[in-house]
Design goal:
- With 361 residues, this protein is α/β, with parallel strands linked by helices.
- It has two domains: 2-142 and 340-359, no CATH class; 154-335, 3-Layer(aba) Sandwich (Rossmann fold).
- Helix content is 44%, strand content 14%.
- It has helices spanning 8-11, 36-49, 53-64, 77-85, 123-131, 144-153, 172-175, 180-203, 217-224, 241-247, 258-266, 287-290, 306-318, 321-335, 343-359, and strands at 2-3, 23-24, 68-71, 90-94, 106-107, 110-111, 114-119, 135-140, 163-167, 206-210, 231-233, 251-254, 269-272.
- The strands form four sheets. The chain has a five-stranded parallel beta sheet with strand order 11-10-9-12-13, with helices on both faces. Strands 3-4-7-8 form a four-stranded parallel beta sheet, with helices on both faces. A two-stranded parallel sheet has the order 1-2.
- It is globular and about 70 Å long.
Length: 361
C-alpha cells in the first residue's frame, strides 16, 4: 500500500512485480473506500483512537491488509503512527526532499516517531538525533529521483556547457505572505539571483533558471523582472528537465534546494545562498544546521556584498575539477550516499527480501 500519490510514478519502480499495490490518494479530499465493511472498520477505529487521521488510515490498512506500507512523503507523521500500530508490517518512508529544523519531524514542537527511513545520507541521522525522534531504522540510500535520472536519462556522459544554472524556489504564497520570515525567503532568493544576473553580464556568461513549477506565471514574471536574458527551464517532472539543466551546467547557484544537494552529491559545483544575511532580513529557519558540514567556499554569507558573490562564484568557475572533488569529498559523502546500483533497485530488493523472509517465518 502506498500512501499519497506524491511521487508515485517514482515509487512504482521500487515495487516487486509479484505483488499488487493500492495507492491512497490524500491530495483530493478525504480517502474513503466505498464499502459497508470499511465504514464498520472506520467506526470501530474512531471509537478506539478518537477523531484523528490515524482512525481513518488504520481503517484503510485493516481493509486492504497490505504486507507493506510505503510513502514518498517522508515527513508525514501518519507513517510513524502506522509503524507503531502495525509492528509486524513493513512500513517505509522514502526521503524526497531536504529536511531541516524545526518542523520537518515535529508537530507543535513535539517530535514524532519515524518508521524505517531511507534517507539521502548521514545528515538525516544527525537531524533525527537532534530532534530526538524515535526512528525504527534508518538506512542511508541516496536519492530515489536522482538514481532514476542518472540510470534512465543520463546513461551517456553529457558535455558540460559553460553556463550557470540558478535553481528557483519561488512560491507565490510566500512572496505575498503576511509573515516577514516567509517573505524574506523570497527576498533573499531575489537578491542572490540579482547578483548572478549582474555577474553574468559583467563576465559574458550565459545563465539559466531551473523553475520550481511547470506552469507558474508569477514565478516567470518574478524572475523576468531581474533579467530578460536568462533561459527559463520549466519543471517537467517526467522529463527530469530541472535535473538535466542543473547537471549540464558548469556551476549551480541555489538557496537550500534538494536538487542542489543532489547535484553536489554527483560532484557538481554549487554555491548555496540560503544562509546569506542582508539588511533587515530574518535568518532562514534550520539552515545553519543543514549547512554545518559544507565547506565555507560553497556558502554565500553576505547578500549586501556583490564582492563576496563575485569572489566565490569566480573561485568555483576557475577551480579544477580534481581539486573541487577532493575538497568536497567529505561533504558529498555526508549529504548523499553513493551506491553502485540505482536507489530504486536497492529499495526493490529490500522490499522483496523482507517480504519473502516474512512469508517464510
Amino acid at each position: 500500500m502506498v500512501i499519497d500519490t506524491n511521487g508515485f510514478e517514482y515509487l512504482k519502480r521500487c515495487l516487486p512485480e509479484s505483488y499488487s499495490y493500492y495507492c491512497v490518494n490524500i491530495r483530493d479530499g478525504i480517502p474513503v473506500i466505498p464499502s459497508a465493511f470499511f465504514i464498520f472498520l472506520f467506526l470501530k477505529n474512531l471509537i478506539n483512537e478518537g477523531f484523528k487521521p490515524l482512525s481513518l488510515f488504520k481503517s484503510i490498512v485493516d481493509f486492504v491488509r497490505p504486507k507493506a506500507i510505503l510513502s514518498f512523503t517522508d515527513n508525514a507523521k501518519i507513517m510513524g503512527d502506522l509503524s507503531l500500530s502495525y509492528p509486524d508490517t513493513l512500513v517505509i518512508s522514502i526521503q524526497n526532499g531536504v529536511r531541516t529544523l524545526p518542523d520537518d519531524f515535529a508537530r507543535n514542537g513535539v517530535s514524532f516517531p519515524v518508521p524505517i527511513y531511507f534517507s539521502f545520507g548521514k545528515y538525516e541521522k544527525d537531524l533525527l538525533e537532534k530532534y530526538r525522534s524515535p526512528v525504527k531504522k534508518i538506512y542511508s540510500m541516496g536519492s530515489l529521483k536522482l538514481g532514476i535520472f542518472l540510470s534512465e536519462f543520463m546513461s551517456q556522459k553529457q558535455e558540460v556547457c559553460n553556463r550557470v544554472c540558478f535553481i528557483s524556489q519561488y512560491i507565490f504564497s510566500l512572496h505575498t505572505s503576511k509573515r516577514k520570515q516567509e517573505r524574506d525567503m523570497i527576498y533573499r532568493q531575489a537578491k542572490a539571483y540579482q547578483h548572478l544576473t549582474h555577474w553574468s553580464k559583467l563576465n559574458n556568461v550565459e545563465t539559466s533558471v531551473a523553475l520550481r513549477s511547470k506552469d507558474c506565471i508569477q514565478e516567470e514574471k518574478f524572475l523576468r523582472s531581474f533579467s530578460q536574458e536568462s533561459l527559463l527551464v520549466k519543471n517537467k517532472a517526467k522529463e527530469f528537465s530541472s535535473y538535466q539543466e542543473a547537471y549540464n551546467a558548469k556551476v549551480i547557484v541555489a538557496m537550500d534546494s534538494t536538487l542542489a544537494f543532489e547535484m553536489l552529491g554527483t560532484g557538481k559545483k554549487v554555491l548555496f545562498c540560503d544562509m546569506a544575511m542582508g539588511n533587515g532580513l530574518l535568518p532562514s529557519r534550520g539552515v545553519e544546521f543543514l549547512f554545518s558540514n559544507l565547506p565555507d567556499f560553497l556558502i554565500l554569507r553576505n547578500l549586501d556584498s556583490f564582492e563576496e558573490f563575485d569572489k566565490k562564484i569566480n573561485h568555483l568557475m576557475q577551480m579544477k575539477e580534481s581539486k573541487y572533488l577532493k575538497e568536497t569529498q567529505e561533504a558529498r559523502d555526508y549529504y548523499l550516499e553513493k551506491r553502485e546500483e540505482p536507489v530504486h533497485q536497492l529499495i526493490y530488493n529490500f522490499i522483496d527480501n523482507a517480504l519473502q523472509k516474512a512469508a517464510n517465518v
